[in-house]
Specification:
Strand content: 5-15%
Radius of gyration: 26 Å
Largest sheet: 5 strands, mixed
Oligomer: single chain
Structural class: alpha+beta
Helix content: 40-55%
Number of strands: 22
Number of helices: 26
Length: 729
């Protein structure tokens, strides 16, 4: 039956009948809960209006599709009819996919950490109908555990407090909102003032602070251990810029990169990295595989190859890891376009594998000695079990252990592995596979564009460059709405099945996409990608810094605004992805070098003023700010390549692409027409750094400039390398 015009579909987000309203949501995570007896609603004004009308609190549950403990709490509590009945009677229950709504996730994570002293997912938060939080935690079990009540006990306590102590709840919510507002004020950034000076000593101090927190097993801190992607980018850039701590930075990066690549964190059969390790030696991963992790790590390993590697971690070993990671991203996360090739990349693979209707963590990736012997024969099976630390007693469960060499495979071990790998890979392919979350997140695909473009250039893989261009084209075609007149364009954060839906992008989405496009332009010389990046940057400046104060969001939700004490700002700390502010500073620097804009360089310098209190106190959480600061101090080193598109020009271009200087930007004359560049909404696809250079049909020439001083034009790779070496000193 077709509803009346304006009427709500039963079970839709606007249906007030009390049914579960997630069935029509595009998010895979929300749809995972569409069959729950809980009357879930998506985050939005309707849900909060319902709570106000019923005079009940909101129970907000935040997670993501690949989250193992989210599945556990769903199975234990949200699928339980009695728990659902209590929730439905006394709360309005709201489900949020943190990957679709990182703005919601960030503010309520701050509340959760302030209330409980811990943070993570699933996140369980109780809110007033205006969006302010008054109680929060993470996972709650179905039965009490030491130091943790059961979920039902928690619900009953909150319900009792709502009925009997409402004024105290209001006071707690108000105090918490004021505290979050004060923290936001502390990170407020004005980007329209005079550019402050950056002290190079900060970066050396950060390297020393990181060395003090290094773990003997590689990486920093203790378990659980996450890949320190942004920190690695800083260390590699610092190693490429001569200083008294360059070698220390190089050694730190080498040990961490080697430890991760030689561990169970890296999938030796298919490629790609797991989200994190629950052990300090990287031997037991938490098995979800995320696009944002793999895009950042791919770029990090490529940059290590470009740096030249060391004896501790050779470049050729890193190149194999990088190539395997890129191949996995495209094969496992690639969403095919009309030509069957990946047009965009999905968000993640689940931590769990469903076997006979039950969730098992990492089931696709586990092995036993008996299984290896059956597949490979007694001798090879036993040798592989020893080599990969697969014991009779599984490290994850009775189902077995992941493959964890814990060292570089060389000589006979390497030969054995190359012989048995195809057999194990084929055997794993017929097992039940983890589910994939097919949503396309603009910012994460932007990270992938940068990584694939640079991997294609450094590893000499044209197929990866082609993939980067296809993804960039998808972002332009599906996620980007060019502005009209004085209105800035709009980048939509998420798409499903080729349709953009939901909120506009956050600062990080604009910054990650622009970063990827500048990298793609440097690798291909196609000026349409420069024009698209320029349009994104112009829109971001208006949306997130239009009044001179930088913000991470453009105010999509009044409830989030209330929870922040009606103050919006920026968070300088990296999370699983770089801080939006730090990434924005990076693209401002790149654009200022390519365009000559002193205004944009000053904006970047103002954002980098956040660094001094973080460089020593919290360098592990400020990796991208540190990496951007290193680029600012090392540059801008401006390189332009112009002239006829000949093998000689390609050689000059490649020499620049293989240069590890963190301050280098590359402009390449686009000798081909660029139909479609105007679709970006950019006024021009002409790169200012190329103006006045050699004509498009002239002899290929490279131009190097630094600090507003240019060297003589050069026409050979040897001359170019000589100039680059002298400018790095």
């Amino acid at each position: 039956m077709t509803p009346e015009p304006g009427a709500a579909e039963p079970g839709s987000a606007n249906d007030s009948s009390g049914a579960n309203a997630l069935g029509g949501e595009p998010s895979a995570y929300l749809r995972q809960h569409a069959g729950n007896p809980v009357h879930w609603r998506p985050f939005g004004d309707d849900a909060f209006a319902m709570a106000a009308a019923r005079d009940v609190p909101v129970f907000l549950s935040i997670g993501y599709a690949a989250c193992h403990w989210c599945h556990v709490m769903a199975r234990e509590s949200f699928e339980d009819p009695a728990t659902a009945e209590f929730l439905n009677a006394n709360f309005v229950s709201v489900k949020v996919d943190r990957e679709e709504r990182p703005d919601v996730d960030a503010v309520y994570m701050a509340a959760t950490q302030a209330i409980s002293g811990e943070g993570g997912w699933p996140m369980s938060v109780f809110l007033l109908p205006d969006g302010r939080a008054f109680h929060a935690g993470t996972y709650y079990p179905p039965r009490p555990m030491p130091g943790r009540p059961s979920f039902r006990q928690l619900l009953e306590a909150v319900h009792e407090a709502w009925l009997e102590r409402r004024s105290a709840i209001e006071e707690n919510a108000d105090a918490l909102a004021r505290g979050i507002a004060a923290a936001q004020a502390g990170a407020a950034v004005r980007v329209d003032g005079p550019a402050p000076e950056l002290d190079p000593a900060l970066l050396a101090e950060a390297v020393r602070a990181l060395a003090r927190s290094e773990d003997a097993a590689g990486g920093f801190g203790t378990a659980p251990k996450f890949p320190p992607s942004a920190v690695l980018e800083f260390l590699i850039r610092h190693a490429a810029a001569p200083s008294g701590t360059s070698r220390d930075a190089q050694d730190l990066a080498a040990r961490t990169l080697a430890a991760m690549a030689r561990s169970a964190l890296f999938d030796l059969l298919e490629g790609g990295f797991a989200r994190y390790s629950v052990t300090g030696d990287w031997s037991v991963p938490h098995f979800e595989k995320m696009l944002y992790d793999n895009a950042q790590l791919l770029r990090g390993y490529v940059h290590w190859v470009r740096l030249g590697g060391t004896g501790v971690y050779p470049a050729e070993e890193a190149a194999a890891v990088a190539g395997g990671t890129a191949d996995w991203m495209l094969s496992a996360l690639g969403l095919p376009g009309a030509d069957g090739k990946p047009a965009a990349l999905a968000s993640s693979l689940d931590a769990d594998t469903v076997v006979d209707g039950e969730h098992f963590e990492g089931a696709s990736y586990l092995w036993t000695p008996a299984e290896l012997a059956k597949l490979l024969g007694e001798d090879d099976g036993a040798a592989v079990a020893r080599m990969m630390n697969v014991r009779a007693r599984g490290t994850v469960s009775e189902a077995g252990s992941p493959l964890h060499p814990g060292r570089r495979l060389q000589g006979p071990d390497s030969e054995l592995w190359e012989r048995v790998r195809p057999v194990l890979r084929a055997a794993r392919a017929v097992r039940p596979q983890p589910a994939r979350d097919d949503k396309v997140v603009a910012g994460w695909n932007g990270l992938a564009v940068a990584a694939l473009a640079e991997a294609g250039a450094v590893l000499d893989r044209p197929d990866l460059l082609d993939a980067a261009e296809r993804i960039a084209g998808y972002l332009e075609r599906v996620h980007w709405n060019p502005g009209q007149g004085q209105e800035p364009g709009l980048l939509v954060r998420v798409s499903h099945a080729g349709q953009a839906r939901g909120i506009g992008g956050l600062l990080e989405d604009y910054a990650f996409c622009a970063e990827g496009l500048f990298a793609l332009y440097a690798a291909t010389g196609r000026s349409r990608w420069y024009a698209f990046a320029e349009a994104l940057l112009a829109a971001a400046c208006k949306r997130f810094a239009g009044d001179g104060t930088l913000r991470d969001t453009a105010g999509e939700s009044s409830q989030v605004f209330n929870a922040q004490g009606r103050r919006a700002g920026t968070d300088p700390y990296d999370d699983a992805t770089p801080s939006g502010a730090a990434a924005f500073a990076g693209v401002l620097l790149s654009y200022s070098a390519l365009s000559g804009s002193a205004e944009h360089r000053a904006m970047a310098a103002n954002i980098l003023a956040l660094l001094p209190p973080l460089a020593v106190r919290a360098p592990r959480a400020a990796g991208w700010l540190l990496a951007t600061a290193q680029a600012a101090l090392a540059g801008p080193l401006e390189a332009a390549v112009a002239g006829a598109a000949t093998p000689e020009r390609a050689a000059l271009h490649r020499a620049l692409l293989l240069t590890p200087s963190p301050g280098l930007v590359i402009a390449v004359q686009d000798t081909a027409a660029e139909p479609g560049a105007e679709a970006t909404g950019s006024a021009s696809a002409v790169v200012p750094l190329l103006r006045g250079r050699t004509a498009a049909d002239a002899e290929p020439t490279a131009y190097l400039c630094r600090g507003m001083v240019c060297r003589l034009p050069v026409r050979t790779v040897a001359q170019l390398r000589e100039q680059l070496a002298s400018m790095a000193e």
